From TrEMBL:
Gene Ontology molecular function: any one: endonuclease activity
Stated name of the protein: AP endonuclease
Residues in the signal sequence: none
Pfam families: AP_endonuc_2 (PF01261)
Gene3D superfamilies: Divalent-metal-dependent TIM barrel enzymes
Species per Swiss-Prot/TrEMBL record: Terribacillus saccharophilus
Domain of life per record: Bacteria
Alphabetical keyword list: Endonuclease, Hydrolase, Nuclease
Domain Xylose isomerase-like TIM barrel: 23-243
Length: 276
C-alpha cells in the first residue's frame, strides 16, 4: 500500500474547507482533515458547515472536482458537562462529506464521566459510520499514552481508535517500545510533524509551538522513524502549523513543502520496513 497523506486543517487553519481542499489537491495530498467543530479559541475561524450551508456546498464541490477525500473531522472535546449530542450536526456533515474518523481529546479530570461520554460519542458516531479517535495531548487531562490506553480499554468500543501525534508523543516523554503493546487495529491515522528535541518547560511555550511553530519532517529532534516503525502503515495527517513560514510562503507552497519533507523522510528512513 502506498503512503497516503492528509492536509490537517491546523496547518492552514485560515483557509476555509473548500480552499483547503483545492490547496491539498494542488500540493499533492490524498486527503484533507477539516475542523467543522470550532474550539472557541481566540481568533480561531468558525467553519461550522452544519449551519453554513453555502460553505458546505462549496466544500462538496471542491471534493468532487479534485477527487480529494476527507480523512477526519475535529475536534470532539470531552469537557465537564458536555453532551455528546452537541456534536451530532458535525458528525452528520462529516458523514455527508465521506469522512472516516472524528478526533477526540479529553479536558476533564473526571475520568469516569469522560469514559462514559467517550462511549456515548462512539455509539453516536457508529450511526454515521465514523470512528472516534482518542488523541492524548500533553496539556490536556488525557495527557499520556498510558492514560489513553486505559480509557480505550475501559470503553471497549469497536469503532474507537488511538490517534498519536508525533509532537504530543515526544512532549509526553513516551517510550517507543510501549507502542509494541498496542493492538494494531487501534491505529487508523497518525498526526505527523516534527519539533525541537528540547521539551519546553512551560505550558504556554508548549502550546505556542504546538499551534504555531512545528517543523518539517526530519528538521527537528522527534524520533519519527522509531515511532513509525512500531505502527501499521496508515494515513499520515500532516499537522505542521508554522505561522511565520505560511506568511512568507503562502499556504499552498508551505503545504507542498510539508508534504515533500514527509515523503523524502519516509523514503529515506522507512522503505526497508516490513509494515504489517
Amino acid at each position: 500500500m502506498k503512503d497516503q497523506f492528509s492536509l490537517a486543517h491546523l496547518t492552514a487553519l485560515a483557509c476555509p474547507p473548500p480552499t483547503l481542499t483545492y490547496i491539498a489537491a494542488r500540493a499533492g495530498f490524498d486527503f484533507v482533515s477539516i475542523r467543522p467543530i470550532c474550539m472557541g479559541l481566540k481568533n480561531e475561524p468558525d467553519y461550522n458547515l452544519a449551519s453554513n450551508k453555502k460553505m458546505l456546498r462549496q466544500t462538496k464541490t471542491a471534493l468532487r472536482e479534485t477527487g480529494i477525500q476527507v480523512l477526519d473531522i475535529e475536534l470532539a472535546k470531552i469537557v465537564d458537562g458536555m453532551d455528546p449530542k452537541q456534536y451530532e450536526p458535525a458528525f452528520e456533515v462529516g458523514a455527508e462529506l465521506g469522512a472516516r474518523h472524528v478526533l477526540c481529546s479529553v479536558w476533564t479530570d473526571d475520568l469516569v464521566f469522560a469514559t462514559d461520554r467517550f462511549i456515548q460519542l462512539c455509539e453516536l458516531a457508529k450511526t454515521y459510520q465514523l470512528s472516534i479517535e482518542l488523541e492524548f495531548v500533553p496539556v490536556a487531562s488525557i495527557a499520556t499514552l498510558a492514560q489513553a490506553v486505559t480509557m480505550l480499554t475501559a470503553a471497549a468500543q469497536d469503532n474507537a481508535g488511538l490517534m498519536i501525534d508525533s509532537h504530543h508523543f515526544h512532549r509526553s516523554k513516551e517510550n517507543v517500545n510501549d507502542l509494541k503493546k498496542i493492538p494494531a487495529n487501534w491505529f487508523h491515522m497518525f498526526h505527523l510533524c516534527d519539533a525541537s528535541k528540547e521539551i519546553p518547560a512551560s505550558r504556554e511555550q508548549m502550546i505556542q509551538i504546538m499551534r504555531e511553530e512545528r517543523l518539517y519532517i526530519g528538521e527537528g529532534g522527534i524520533p519519527i522513524k522509531e515511532i513509525l516503525r512500531e505502527i501499521p502503515k496508515i494515513p499520515y495527517s500532516l499537522e505542521i502549523p508554522h505561522l511565520q513560514r505560511t506568511k512568507e510562503l503562502g499556504f499552498e507552497e508551505y503545504a507542498r513543502r510539508c508534504l515533500q519533507s514527509a515523503k523524502e523522510y519516509i523514503s529515506l528512513n522507512l522503505d526497508d520496513v516490513n509494515i504489517y
